[in-house]
Amino acid sequence: MSTRPLSRIFLAASAVCALFLTACGGSTELDSNKASSAGKDSPFIYYVSVSVTGPVAAFTDAEIGGFQLAVDKVNEQGGINGRKVELVVQNDGNDPTTAVTLLQKYLASGKTPDAVYAGSSSAVALSLLPVLASRKIISLSAPNSKAALDHPDKYPYGFATTVASAESGPFFAKEAQAKGFKKVAMLYADSATGQGSFAAYQEAMKEAGIPLVSATYKETSLDMTPQLQKLQAEKPDALILNGYGAPTLYVFKSRAQLGWDLPTYADTLASSFPLAKNLPPESLKNVMVQVNKPSLADSPHPDGLQAFIDTVKNGDHKAQFPTYGVSPYAVGWDNVMLARAAATQAGTSDGDKVKELLESGKFQKPSGDLLGNGKDASAIDYCYSPQTHFPCPTSETFEFVPPPTTDANGMYVVTAGS
Amino acid sequence: MTTIWSGLVIGALYSLVAIGYNTVLLASGVFNFAHGQLIMLATYASFLGSVTFHLPWPLTVLFATIAVAVVAIVEERVAIRPLLARRDIHAALITTVGASTVMSGLAEVTAGSDPKQLAIPISNDPLTILGGVIAPMDLLLIIATLAIGLGIHFWSRRSLLGIASLAVAENRDAASVRGIDTKLLGVGAFAVAGGIAGATGLLVGAHTYAIPSLGNSLALFGFVAIAIGGAGSQLGGLLGGFITGIIFALSARYIGSDYPQIVVFGVFLAVLLTRPRGIFGRAMERVV
Amino acid sequence: MLEISELTAAYGDLRVLWDVSLSVRTGTSTIVLGRNGAGKTSLLNAIAGLPPAAAAGRIVFDGEDITGEAPHRRIRRGIGYVQENKQIFRQRTVEENLLIGSVTLAGWRRGTPARRAALDRAYARFPVLAERRKALAGGLSGGQQQMLAIAQALMSDPKLLILDEPSAGLAPTIVKDVFALIGELKREGLSILLVEQVVEAAITVADHIVVIDNGRVAAEGPVKQFDDASVIREIYLGRSGTPVAGA
């Protein structure tokens, strides 16, 4: 009992500390910035803010496996601009506040990263980008929310390295026009991700002149019949579904129960869930899922991919491979390779110079080094400009396929007959 | 009518949570927030029984009943008993929330966050009844929930043990000096609540799949169900669950999919303001 | 029947009884007197197994040490406890209240012969409860509720009946009825331990008197030693701790 006041004081004290850390960290060590990035003998610091604990820990572990393999490879080939690369992994617990605190602490310690991977989620990225902007540090990372993050005016040094999921909207609109759909319905999760997905489709459908009706569900919903009935009453020609996991299963179950077999398209989020494994084929009649084309087993793959898979399978982080396949490892790898290409082509890791290069259109994509975007990285176009810091999709980026299964490498396999 | 069926199915799930809440509340005065998680664990136990061990369904039900009852007893011993010994029922409310977090965390760590499909004993081709479509397992879920809810309601009103548990809920000390072993009754209530959750795991899981987030999805609306029906009234909890489910489905269908939660909580508030003891609740003022 | 020796009891760290010793011999009645807050109810609760818990000393009932036992075990040994303020189950019916009092009898069915017989005895003794057996206990009058509380405690067929201020909040005529009943129970052979504020009424059924003040026994002795009511009045009015007689 007597320890209670003490622990309270301690708690209050640490809360105050946390508040001030932000301010202190930001103001003190300004000059050390230049000191460390200038030194030729100092290492090239590749700073990674990810969630090593919590629900995405296993996925993160695989990503870190990719970072580590790429850093080893780069060092073997002489580092970046003659400097050895040092990988710094910070555990932000997928919490924006923690992420910022850790970064501030790191900066306050007198070290300055040369490149940053700014978080596994858009929320973390959103918290880190302003700090990075104030210190002119380049970040190359894979956040999802183009709407929230693609603001070169506010975040001039933040660049995305994967195609935003919002690009699914225009891709679907093309399909809808080709199929002659007169009216389309969308059912999406009432969450930031779901609303983001809906906004993307809404804009694209408006541009295509096809009416879009919609309904939402809570992530805690246990039955989707009423929502589907509501949409069914609108008599749409096709249905777009956003979601992941159990809610998508409930949707397909209710859809089958209602005997409603209209063409149904699962967005990239919904398609990353193994639908075919969890539902009987009759529930998936007329269902198409949108996949990243490089993830299809029979797409042409980069030359180094098989060797990379073999290395991963024998490496320190192999434990996650059976669950997630090669994709998270490739994300980690590609981001390091892009950081090297940018710094090498700019001849420096100075934020302004790298930014200028990336926005100039003269950036050469390191096709031979990239593993996550198909052969010759043909599924991605680093179309950075002063207006956008997100890459563009190409004709090789997306494809609609019947719900696939996954092979031993985590690649999608479309079984015939569905 | 399909919408009504859908509401009844969801309502049955909420009713089951309400029955679990009430069973423990009545016998030990503790609000066991972890009951939704016990139902979640029941779906996993039923998955283990039906898919992993390939047990026939009666054995799956028996296995899940025992397994979840044991978990509930452990919860009582670890999270509740030490606090009841210190006569701290309010802290017990917090520790049940803690127990709830531990259970969903353990499920997620051991089973992963992806849903798992249970093997069900009968064909689940939809039936058309009264002009509405419903899956056979869902129909069984509704029937089983009604039977359990009515059964436990009449049992608690008629049997000596049931009356004794109502006495404990009303006044724990007075019940103990009438010779009732309140500790044993408390453990018994957890075991019964866990057992009921386990026994219905197969029916629940057939609809929801086994998934770690199920407990959280259920906990809140189970609470709304007993608030509408009246805390401490088994009949009220049963009906409150079905009412909540039907309101939810009808407002999702006809008002708009953004509204069901708002409508349900509107009804919840209206009931709290006009009939604070619930529509069917008789006074339970000493509890909670 | 009941031997309490040097009992010290506390709510957590807060001591409320110090070195209390008293005894109730079989077939006799002991009255505990004392001012409000003197520790009378605490004493009865400690005997029944409710807080405050014994920190030192012993409670022996029927030759067995029951100091650390749970309340329901003590009740099963033959202690009936009528708590203060008519602690009945107000949301249950009269008959359900009586049945709750009978849980110590063998069997879990409502209709065992022993249980039926105990019910019949209760209704014979309290005809008004028989008339209102289906009524909610909370709807009874104050006097009826007190009768129900006593009837409920008698359902387990106790050897020692403990009553905490059975006259509290009742009209004078009903207080008379209550004490007539207590006298009757005593004549039937029941041992009685009674806490009471209405000294004049209590003395009519008392064999032995214990005066408690500030959690300690301030005076104790057979009822005849307290003939002079001024002695008792003195204790009520203060001068606490002054031994009055016998102690």
TrEMBL record, chain B:
UniProt topology in membrane? Multi-pass membrane protein
Spans through the membrane: 12-35, 55-74, 89-107, 127-152, 184-203, 209-228, 235-256, 262-280
- Domain of life from the UniProt record: Bacteria
Predominant place of localization: membrane
InterPro entries, A to Z? ABC_transp_permease (IPR001851), BCAA_transport_permease (IPR052157)
Q: Could you tell me which CDD domains the record lists for this protein? A: TM_PBP1_LivH_like
Under the heading PANTHER family, the entry gives: ABC TRANSPORTER PERMEASE PROTEIN, BRANCHED-CHAIN AMINO ACID TRANSPORT SYSTEM PERMEASE PROTEIN LIVH
State the UniProt keywords alphabetically.
Amino-acid transport, Cell membrane, Membrane, Transmembrane, Transmembrane helix, Transport
Query: Where does the UniProt annotation locate this protein?
Result: Cell membrane
> Any idea what this protein is called?
Branched-chain amino acid ABC transporter permease
Family, per entry:
Belongs to the binding-protein-dependent transport system permease family. LivHM subfamily.
UniProtKB/TrEMBL annotation, chain C:
- Which keywords has UniProt assigned to this entry? Amino-acid transport, ATP-binding, Nucleotide-binding, Transport
- The coiled-coil segments of this chain are none
Q: Its domain of life? A: Bacteria
Q: Which PROSITE patterns match?
A: ABC_TRANSPORTER_1, ABC_TRANSPORTER_2
CDD domains the record matches:
ABC_TM1139_LivF_branched
For this UniProt entry, the molecular function terms from Gene Ontology, in alphabetical order, are:
ATP binding
List residues of the ABC transporter domain.
2-239
Task: Report the sequence similarity comment from the record.
Answer: Belongs to the ABC transporter superfamily.
In Swiss-Prot or TrEMBL terms, this protein is called ABC transporter ATP-binding protein
Q: Which organism is it from?
A: Paractinoplanes globisporus
Q: Highest lineage ranks of the organism?
A: Bacteria, Bacillati, Actinomycetota, Actinomycetes, Micromonosporales
